[in-house]
Amino acid sequence: MKSAFWGFAVCGIFSTSVSAMGYSSEYFACMNNAQASTTQAALCMKSELKQQTKRYEYFADIHVKVLPKEQQKSQETINKKWLTLRDEHCLIKNLKLSVGHASKYYSCALKKTQAQADLLEKQAYKYR
Length: 128
Hints:
By secondary structure, the chain is mainly alpha-helical. The chain contains five helices and no strands. The protein is about 80% helix and about 0% strand.
């Protein structure tokens, strides 16, 4: 019985997602190194936003695949629209105005994307 439990535990460890919920350890290290530099912090957030967007797309794709075929296209459209609405809400149009505006955009988009990716990741585990 104990060996069966450990077998399941090991399978559970290897079957979980490579990307963990929340921000990456690289992001925290980058932000610690940035200290008071707005420019460096914006670069850290930009890099992490790319990673979190990949996480969002990965888990959104899992969600789409479990839907009936007739619903998949519309869900893909909704997922793409979510990214567009995120950018509009976080004022991507101001991205190039200044480092301060870029930092505000990346901070806003990063928070929203990380939260949405976490939500989709939680839902994805229901499908496994």
